[in-house]
Specification:
22% strand, alpha/beta, 187 residues, globular, Nucleotidyltransferase, domain 5, two-stranded antiparallel sheet
């Protein structure tokens, strides 16, 4: 079984983890959980990493020395809203926890933005799975991890050809070499 892993890094007790497989183009959740921190996320992923081919993370996997990333600016221009936060405005454990897990797990890694993707993409199958995960737990951590895994699957399998790190001109530094930011359409 080929798995795609997803991680939603957060504060204490708010780290969503998920493993999905894609069958006939549809996502199927194999396992999901909310864990305490990045260390517990890494332990959880160990059980699944042997058959996993990629990891999607709801965090910044590339940083700009200019204070803001051109890919984030492009997303804000195209879709509006306030869910795409500037890198220098972040104040949570999301960025360091995501970077630690991405580097230590050693899988191909893909940045994701679950909330924006669900709002603008029309990806009905992943939206329903997300909604079910959130209603089951009352929190969005596992749902965001599932969507992050879906983004990894779409990018890894080249179903989404846009890479926001490459297709939007910017001076960025990848946190993990070869990290990508797949998106379903050009921005």
């Amino acid at each position: 079984m080929t798995l795609f892993l997803g991680y939603d890094p957060g504060g204490k007790g708010k780290n969503g983890v998920a493993a999905i497989q894609v069958i006939s183009g549809e996502p199927e959740v194999v396992a999901k959980d909310t864990v305490r921190d990045a260390a517990e996320a890494l332990s959880w992923f160990e059980d699944h990493a042997r058959t996993a081919v990629a990891l999607g993370i709801d965090t910044l996997l590339a940083w700009s020395p200019k204070g803001g990333r051109a890919c984030d600016d492009a997303l804000r221009r195209k879709y509006g809203g306030n869910s795409v936060v500037a890198q220098n405005s972040l104040y949570s454990s999301m960025t360091p926890n995501g970077a630690i897990v991405a580097k230590r797990l050693g899988l191909p890694v893909y940045e994701s933005h679950p909330k924006l993707l669900l709002r603008v993409s029309g990806e009905h199958a992943i939206y329903e799975i997300y909604k079910n995960a959130v209603s089951a737990t009352g929190a969005d951590h596992e749902g965001d991890a599932i969507v992050a895994a879906w983004c990894a699957a779409m990018g890894h399998n080249r179903i989404w050809a846009v890479d926001l790190y490459v297709d939007v001109e910017d001076d960025i530094e990848l946190v993990v070499p070869e990290a990508r930011y797949p998106w379903f359409e050009a921005v």
